From TrEMBL, chains A, B:
Enzyme Commission number: 2.3.3.21
Keywords, ordered alphabetically: Amino-acid biosynthesis, Branched-chain amino acid biosynthesis, Isoleucine biosynthesis, Transferase
Recorded name of the encoding gene: cimA
Protein name (database record): Citramalate synthase
Record-linked PROSITE patterns: AIPM_HOMOCIT_SYNTH_1, PYR_CT
EC top class named in words: transferase
Recorded catalytic activity of this chain's protein: pyruvate + acetyl-CoA + H2O = (3R)-citramalate + CoA + H(+)
Length: 539, 539
């Protein structure tokens, strides 16, 4: 049997069923382009029979110049008691102009009776006619057998008949769906093996993650003979998500020697996963397998240098194969050797005999002792290491800030921030309001800097976390604020610690902007705009 | 073979290796109590040989009254060329007072040479001596075979010898660790089967999630004969995390008919998972299998009532079995019966026909929709339920508040709060400074109330947590503040939600004081002190 496995990405269709995930047509086109570069074989773009946004996507997708991926449109089998040629849904697939149709039908007798409210025979005819009609129009047809595993467990003979009908009608693929996500790998193995022995058509698997087994179930199906895997980037999807292609791809190809995409394409995996997260505006978990920023992170300690020397025995995979990289987390247990290693990663020279270097190293240790936690704040650490190596840039200097928050009965809360900075030897003095004090500070800072550094409009804060370090005396205790910021390519994290939540937030905000602006050249601001900005102080 | 599987929770030890996870001794004690109620068999509390915080945990854990869970301490085998009786690390385990020791040793010849820098024979002796020593002191001994699967793949004979030594020395369990998380389920099945056939000792599995297969690998090991599963709540842990017990427990017991905990305990799974997330201040993904809030969420639509009528065919499991609930994303159907149940717990009568009751129930639903999460804030919920039942007391009324935070170069930050309340029909107007804005507000509030309610000096804030609810636009997004307060007898938690971190903190602070003062009788303040207090406004 061939070791080639086809990858069917449904991020744009099933992925958008996930809570909090919504993609514009523009977003979908960008993601489709990126998925093609990654090398997936099928991109399911949407359901043209269900909404106009999807129709627009298929129209505009014709302009994409894809290297290899085929765009496919989703839809259901024909309605009961209808001629397929008169079926609106099937005709919408044809009108979408795709060369591949993906249609789903019922496998479970219970759903035929209750959801379709028709006979078992009519359902078989609906499957046969729909596949046959689309094949007669020259399309490649993928048949998704909805609820297949549950149906098989309840009425094996009928479930088998449904997919036999699809195969007889000429389906190019029969895809077995674990729609409710409740199957165990042992069941998948048994059932796919049985199907592969009886059905004369290539088989695919479509798994959901309700038991945290979607990746395992997809692999089990491939072992049992499936040669197409359906899933989504980062496992987006309804309830607990679809099978995560970002884990399935490296598992199949790098661990189990199946062939899915080229090795060069595999090095784009991390980058693609992060891009899709960014476009969907969904926070990617640090600990996501293979592509998360903690996936190859080592906690520092006395043994860190030994770990790095023999990385292969402490890492299950070379991270570069999937485009990720090793990271050393600098935690309180960490020693000087970690900092040196970290500096090397950044191409900074630390001369440990140098007085300033020694002083900054001591400063980092003192900060850790106070409660700074650099393992979640790489950008703040990088700024300090730059200082230690003498390669620091003072992109701006803080003179003062002031925030006030006020609420009177039955009125909304008001937050106002005033910021005084020195940028390129000019004093800049701005005021801004915001939804809260941190937002007001962020707005005032940006207002002060945007004329010098127009690029900052590309970046935004993507996460904000606060934690009390010592809980003994909570509101008088130190708090640690972590701020995560992103632009279109990168994400970076900064930290602030203070007894004052606003002061800690301010430190993290200032670090975030300093980090973003390091290496950028300030422009001389337009004098008119500057006058306008200063004028705001009079309000 | 018995169907009973023992659950070994290492949230407090391996879980804290996760990036961004840090637990105080107090946090660990709370989690241990909750894990015992869930019914896990072993709770690994820490590594007493590695740090003083863990030593303190074991000391204080002696005061916990656990129903069934055994607390276990972690450590390594003895150092090379040492008598176990002289080994500091082993003796720290004994000194911790636990009845179960969990020690790890090397299985992989490569690591013996490179990390331990000793001979293969000495490593075998280290394992044998360490297990034998702890057994001779009367402890139950769990032997964790670190890097076992990688070691077995490289040098099968030697890896087998290491665990045979542990078994010969009397280990109660040999636990096979996939330390790097890189093994596939098919490998786990093959290797555990081989070990089970050769080693005369109960076997356990310790998996990591680097390939998104930790749950599948744990199950595969149980199928192959393992009868102990090590993992963490929510899959916390280094890199991509440890095996997630929140998925393994229901998979083993509800899907595969193994016996782990009682059915009643299983209904505490969701609640425990969320509690641990709250305490660790880690955002629980909506889509987490079994316990996430989207795990049984149905997107509303025309078929939603049909879905609900035949829920069993659209859900892989009845959510109540794991203490979760079905959610319909469009119309909020859930909640009311839970609130009635909660009110009964508090001896409050809710008359669901009463207009005010209906209105407050609607208010609670709206608040949940906004992002309030009452699971971690029982006191805030109780205040609302008291309002719903008409048994509310207005201990004080807020007229206005104002906070300002200011810093000038080289000076310390200053925080000042002004509060205007009505207490017993008197207007009270106070100002106070603090270490931060929340502390200043707390001080001003207390100053306003202490003459009426002298008891409030007995209470203090014991924890303060902030979380961004919607990460899309971080500093302009809603934040949720949880405040925990204590007096000498009780601890209670309150919540506030706002786009403004100060406003949210204020809500939680006010709720905390309202809760504490409910049922207390206000005294008439001494006029002299009152005059003095008012005078403070002139400063």
């Amino acid at each position: 049997m061939s070791s080639a496995v086809k990858i069917f990405d449904t991020t744009l269709r099933d992925g958008t069923q996930g809570e909090g995930i919504s993609l514009s047509v523009e977003d979908k086109l960008k993601i489709a382009q990126k998925l093609d570069e990654l090398g997936v074989h099928y991109i399911e773009g949407g359901w043209p029979g269900s909404n106009n946004k999807d129709i627009e996507f298929f129209e505009r997708a014709k302009q994409l110049s894809l290297k290899q991926a085929k765009i496919t449109a989703f839809g259901s089998t024909r309605r009961k008691d209808t001629d397929p040629a008169d079926d609106v849904n099937l005709n919408k697939i044809l009108e979408s102009g795709v060369s591949v149709a993906t249609i789903f039908g019922k496998s479970w007798d219970f759903h035929v009776h209750k959801a379709l409210q028709t006979s078992l025979e009519e359902n078989l005819a609906m499957i046969y006619d729909s596949v046959f009609y689309l094949k007669s129009k020259g399309l490649e047809v993928i048949y998704d057998a909805e609820h297949f595993f549950d149906g098989y467990k309840q009425n094996q003979a009928y479930a088998m008949q449904t997919i036999q009908k699809a195969a007889e009608a000429g389906a190019d693929w029969v895809v077995l769906c674990d729609t409710n996500g409740g199957s165990m790998p042992s069941e998948i193995t048994r059932i796919v093996t049985d199907v592969a022995a009886q059905v004369n058509c290539p088989i695919g698997i479509h798994a959901h993650n309700d038991c945290e087994l979607a990746v395992a179930n997809s692999i089990a199906a491939v072992h049992a003979g499936a040669r197409q895997v359906q899933g989504t980037m980062n496992g987006f999807g309804e309830r607990c998500g679809n099978a995560n292609l970002c884990s399935i791809l490296p598992n199949l190809q790098l661990k189990l020697s199946y062939t899915c995409i080229s090795p060069e394409q595999m090095t784009q995996l991390t980058n693609t996963a992060r891009y899709v997260s960014e476009i969907a505006n969904v926070h990617m978990p640090l600990n996501q397998p293979y592509v998360g920023s903690a996936a190859f992170a080592h906690k520092g300690g006395i043994h860190v240098s030994a770990i790095l020397r023999h990385a292969k025995t402490y890492e299950h995979l070379t991270p570069e194969l999937v485009g990720n990289k090793q990271r050393v987390l600098v935690s309180e247990l960490a020693g000087q050797s970690n900092l040196v290693f970290k500096a090397q990663e950044l191409n900074l020279d630390l001369d440990m005999q140098n007085a300033q270097t020694k002083q900054v190293i001591q400063e980092i240790k003192d900060l850790e002792h106070q409660g700074y936690q650099f393992e979640g704040a790489d950008a703040s650490l990088e700024l300090l290491l730059r200082k230690a190596s003498g390669q620091v840039e003072d992109v701006f200097e803080v003179k003062s800030f002031k925030v006030s928050i006020e609420r009177h009965r039955d009125q909304a809360v008001r937050s106002e921030a005033i910021v005084k900075l020195a940028v390129k030897n000019e004093e800049v003095y701005t005021v801004a309001s915001g939804n809260g004090p941190v937002n007001a500070l962020d707005n005032a800072l940006r207002k002060a800097l945007i004329d010098f550094y127009p690029d900052i409009q590309r970046m935004h804060l993507s996460d904000y976390k606060v934690r009390v370090i010592d809980e003994k005396d909570a509101t008088a205790a130190k708090v640690r604020v972590l701020v995560e910021s992103s632009d279109f390519e990168n994400t970076w994290s900064t930290v602030g610690v203070s007894e004052n939540v606003i002061e800690a937030s301010w430190q993290a905000l200032v670090d975030s902007l300093r980090y973003a602006l390091t290496g950028k050249t300030a422009v001389t601001p337009n004098k008119e705009r500057e006058a306008e900005r200063s004028g705001l102080l009079n309000h």
